[in-house]
Design brief:
single chain; about 325 residues; alpha/beta; D-Maltodextrin-Binding Protein, domain 2; 2 domains; 5-stranded mixed β-sheet
Length: about 325
């Protein structure tokens, strides 16, 4: 299945982009929960927050609520009304639905840009480099202390899929749940972990200062079939979603405009985002990472049924929970139709 054949939102992306700014009394407000604003895979939301022109074009008063990598708190926030939606790793919301959460999903935003960063010390000890054949790199992970988001998250399932390419599973590494990127980089530098899995940009501090090295990269097609699987989606309470579809359509159209700006001038348009959320990121790392992310964004910010159900079918097969209510036809709201 080719998940890269995505529908172009002619009405949302062209007609609305050409429309004048909405009247002030037609402006709609939203508190957009984001798993982590400082992750490049989530950058469309904080970039929109910084872009008042695109907000005005679509009649939005758009603010993010940043959860700093705590994906569980992001979901909890839409239950406790601390945020209206939760933009998160796609499987987090699917798991919440399977466990009885009354949520809907929308806006598949980006393909896979996940990577595994290994500590330089560990790499030297093992006598392997990022240029080694992918099978050898995967085999080298056996027994290592690997940090990443907790079970139920996209990256946790992805490391298992990566390891399975060489006959291993996540049980063959010492997986350590960790969602704080600052702590993850510090742990790698201080020898408390051997490797970490996160999206492009998350481990850039370690890669930039030489304490870590990009070891396996889905963005670079190390494992081609995983490249186009969706990575980030948005969730909200079912009742809230039904009552706010017009608001969500506006946000999706605004996100389409943000992605168009990024693709037209990635470094120019993203400069404000870098200053706001990644000011300490080494310029060389920024110049290397940003193009990979921009190329992975799904142009219509919606995605496909096949991409969504790629995840649900695997979760359904591997989990004791019942995922019938999480499949696309039951759980996804196609906003551009």
């Amino acid at each position: 299945m080719n998940y890269s054949k995505l529908r172009l939102p002619a009405i949302l992306g062209i007609a609305m982009a050409a429309a004048p700014a909405m009247a002030q009394d037609d402006v709609m407000s939203v508190r957009w929960g984001v798993a982590v604003n400082a992750s490049l895979s989530h950058m469309v939301a904080p970039a929109l927050e910084l872009d008042k022109e695109i907000q005005a074009r679509h009649g939005l008063d758009f603010t993010t609520v940043d959860f700093g990598g705590n994906v569980t708190n992001c979901i909890a926030a839409i239950i406790s009304d601390l945020a209206d939606v939760c933009q998160n790793g796609i499987t987090v919301g699917m798991n919440a639905i399977a466990q009885g959460g009354d949520f809907k999903g929308f806006m598949q935003q980006i393909g896979q840009i996940t990577e595994i960063t290994i500590s330089t010390e560990t790499m030297n000890r093992l006598g392997i480099t990022p240029d080694a054949p992918i099978g050898e790199r995967i085999a080298a992970l056996k027994g290592l202390r690997v940090a990443g988001p907790p079970p139920g998250t996209t990256n946790h399932y992805l490391i298992d899929a990566i390891l399975q390419e060489n006959g291993l599973t996540v049980a063959d590494v010492q997986y350590q749940p960790l969602a704080d990127l600052t702590a993850m980089n510090a742990s790698l530098a201080n020898g408390r972990i051997d490797a970490a899995i996160w999206s492009v940009g998350g481990m850039s501090p370690s890669q930039a200062d030489g304490t870590g090295a990009r070891f396996i990269s889905l963005a670079n097609d190390d494992i081609p079939f995983l490249r186009t699987v969706p990575n980030v989606a948005v969730y909200a309470n079912s009742d809230w979603t039904a009552e706010n579809e017009e608001l969500l359509r506006r946000v999706q159209a605004a996100f389409v405009d943000v992605v168009a700006e990024l693709q037209a001038d990635p470094f120019g348009y993203a400069a404000a985002y870098k200053q706001a959320w990644l000011p300490e990121l080494d310029q060389a790392a920024w110049e290397e990472n940003l193009p990979q992310v921009v190329a992975a964004f799904i142009p219509d910010m919606e995605g496909t049924k096949e991409g969504w159900d790629f995840w649900v079918s695997r979760l359904d097969a591997e989990s004791p929970d019942d995922f019938a209510s999480a499949y696309y036809d039951q759980a996804f709201v196609p906003l551009s139709q």
